[in-house]
Amino acid sequence: QLLQRERLVVRPRRVLRFGGAPAASAAVAQVAVGLRFLAVATRPLAAEGLAASSASPPATASTASPADDPTASAPERRSSQVFTVGVFCEPGDAHALRAWEGLAGVPLRQLCAGSFHCCALSTSGELFTWGHPLGRDVSNGNLLGHGPIPLPAEHAPLAQPPRRVAGLAQHPVAEVSCSTYSVLALTTDGRAFTWGDSDGDALGHDEDECSAPRWLDAPSLRGQNLAHGAVAYTNAAVATTDGRVFMWGGNAWERGIAAGRAARGPSEITWSGAPPCYQCTSVSLAWRHGYLLFHKRA
Questions:
Q1: Closest by CA position to 128, among listed 140, 139, 141, 112
Q2: What are the tens digits of pLDDT across the range 45-79?
């Protein structure tokens, strides 16, 4: 999955060929890394105008729009591609570099990956997921958000191709975050939806088997316009643009940054706050630490 001939690459090395063609024939827009696979979104250089970065700026409830990206040219919509290479979960999922037809021509705002699955967010707020629906330790909820897996427990499901998450069809998504076994989606109207494995209260609600997006309608979040969020293992955090932070999870296995709170669901984290002239523009979370990024208001 390193796109190199050698099995071990100890230093960064430029990829010279991509999809059977010289790598210079396409511009890499975004990259996401799973446990044993790599996902790459590209755009044709003609659409890039041989310019610099093609990644879309971070979206928030105030900036994201269900309208299509006005900056995406017609050639870009026709020729942008999403590739993966590696193994999603089972040996039968192993694949060489391949493009996914279901995402061809879809201009993307964000590409992210959990250990066994991938999420692609379009500039119009449509969320697509693909990969393995349960993962190696068998999640108690569908990681792809497409509903319960209609298979007997003794039959391991195969990886699934990209498909739009129907449960969010009426809720344009502004931002998405993946953990090993959970997914968090923030919508353009400032709401949070979660699905996947519920161990450790990782989803922020009491649904034990959550296989489709569920609105996180916790009392502490009511009336809050959530702008950014992140998940890490069984921990999760969301923030408003003015820097109010709410966390949940961390109550099982290796626990983590959200552990030790009195509440099982989302609760606000008290801190000194940022000056009112700054707004939160990003949340990053790891096992036992996290970051809030602020920019000065225009």
A1: 112
A2: 764 444 444 444 445 554 444 344 444 544 444 57
